[in-house]
Amino acid sequence: MFIPIFLLTILFFALITGGQPPPLRGYLINCGSKTDIQQDGITYTKDDGYTVAGNLTTLNRHDILPVLTTLRYFPYGPGKHCYEFPVTKGAKFLIRTTYFYGGFDGGNEPPIFDQIIDGTTWGTVNTTEDYKNGLSSYYEIIVAANDRTISVCWACNEHTKSPASPFISSLEVMDLDSSLYNSTDFEKYGLITVARANFASESNFVRFPDDPFNRYWQPFIDGNPTVEAHANVTSSEFWNRPPAKVFISGSTTSRGKNLSIQWPPFSVPTNRYYVALYFQDNRSTSPYSWRVFTVLIDGETFYQDLNVTTKGVTVYGTEWPLSGDTHITLTPRSDMPVGPTINAGEVYQILPLAGATLGRDVMAMQIFKQSLRNPPDDWNGDPCLPKEHPWLGIGCSEEEQVRVTSLNLKGLSLIGTLPKEIARLTALKEFRLSNNKLTGPIPDLSPLKGLEILQLDENEFEGPFPDGLDTLPNLREL
Ligand SMILES: *[C@@H]1O[C@H](CO)[C@@H](O)[C@H](O)[C@H]1NC(C)=O
Ligand SMILES: *[C@@H]1O[C@H](CO)[C@@H](O)[C@H](O)[C@H]1NC(C)=O
Ligand SMILES: *[C@@H]1O[C@H](CO)[C@@H](O)[C@H](O)[C@H]1NC(C)=O
Ligand SMILES: *[C@@H]1O[C@H](CO)[C@@H](O)[C@H](O)[C@H]1NC(C)=O
Ligand SMILES: *[C@@H]1O[C@H](CO)[C@@H](O)[C@H](O)[C@H]1NC(C)=O
Ligand SMILES: *[C@@H]1O[C@H](CO)[C@@H](O)[C@H](O)[C@H]1NC(C)=O
Ligand SMILES: *[C@@H]1O[C@H](CO)[C@@H](O)[C@H](O)[C@H]1NC(C)=O
Prior knowledge:
Bound molecules: 2-acetamido-2-deoxy-beta-D-glucopyranose
Signal peptide: 1-19
Oligomer: single chain
Subcellular location: Membrane
CATH superfamily of the largest domain: Galactose-binding lectin
Keywords: Leucine-rich repeat, Membrane, Repeat, Signal, Transmembrane, Transmembrane helix
Domain Malectin-like: 29-350
CATH topology of the largest domain: Jelly Rolls
Distance between the termini: 42 Å
Number of helices: 3
Radius of gyration: 26 Å
Protein name: Malectin-like domain-containing protein
């Protein structure tokens, strides 16, 4: 799957100074670090406790942002490696992954690999171009928690050249208020950030604390005239809570003319997108201070006769088709004494989610994992999904309701016990555990009615062999 590349510099941010902003809610992680650090008024914590996978390293450079100097990498191999965050089920998050290769493995080319959100492949991480230009790269996605944890994972793909290792420099999981982007059905979709712009701005990114969710609004400037607004916008009156600061600058054109903008400033793959645009009349409040114009995207009417006032207004499309270059045209109503104006915009690619393994199976596997002293180190995130990257030794059904159908854990030297909850994996057909160091009793496996193959030999189980195995209708190998 190809994902639009959304790669920007964050190497040269101005430091934020001034009053006490409200705290940022969420997890802000400085990956690979052994200490917490401060950057731009935000505390980035060490990643202890959120992941057990991979190795830490520090770049031998002092000219880069503190958050980029350490990273965690996951040595080349199969399986996915995850960070897991406890969250409130149903809550919505903006997740940002930031990458700066810095030659940590002694090479010249950054590795290419996949990033994964819960059970869904989010996209390919390719930081080659940015790295060549001396920049770091970031990717963002908005998702809702379908369970009480959210996992962000990395895995090798067909472009990962052995022995290159997937890596991550910083990971942010920002809590979004429920009204943000709420026209999207987050049980089915995620929103991948394609572009978020502050039009006609020449300054730095607008972000925290101006944006309480630390969204990055990039400055975008083209050949159109610019205006500066003087009135105030109340951010909380907009469901998406755009920061008031992005309304200050706007692109405009003279009276009677169309305003035409090519944005996002790169071509996008054919897909459906969530598009939100933000406008404000720049003039001081008066009974006549509004502007009416029609918004077109690629020649199609996006909104007819939009009345833009000094209080600001937004229009959005939840599933707007885009392909290649995107042209936004604002056509003033013929009686307007002023030209149209635009202040900010957001474009997200709609990502269908791959779903999740049946919760009961996930729970059973979690309990099994906890009963092992040395579970395989890729046993993180969703057990079955994405289907290219299930947990080591696990086979799953491909039906709509994904279930664990086989466990092939022969010879992994597993130490621990077999919990009784394993019998909740009622779709299990094959269960091979030979040649491990499992101890304790063998639990009652009689609920596993579909079981065809059961291999428990070469372990250190104690106690009697449980009853009921002879009643399993499909068992053909024991
Ligand atoms: C990574 O960590 C593992 C265990 O924590 C260790 O066995 C391995 O040698 C490390 N790899 C490298 C390249 O440092
Ligand atoms: C990664 O990006 C570079 C530079 O843009 C490009 O040349 C290369 O084809 C990309 N690789 C993959 C696998 O997408
Ligand atoms: C989105 O949130 C706003 C503000 O809370 C609310 O008025 C609106 O009904 C919500 N829309 C949907 C589709 O849930
Ligand atoms: C904007 O808001 C600030 C603080 O609320 C106020 O001092 C200022 O007068 C307002 N400006 C306008 C043009 O309304
Ligand atoms: C402005 O755009 C409208 C709608 O696309 C088009 O009909 C009109 O000809 C354009 N006007 C000018 C002056 O380009
Ligand atoms: C508002 O924008 C118009 C152009 O659309 C410009 O001519 C005018 O000077 C601006 N007014 C203020 C107060 O900046
Ligand atoms: C635009 O909105 C303002 C404020 O809601 C209203 O007073 C005005 O009549 C509207 N103008 C048009 C042309 O619809």
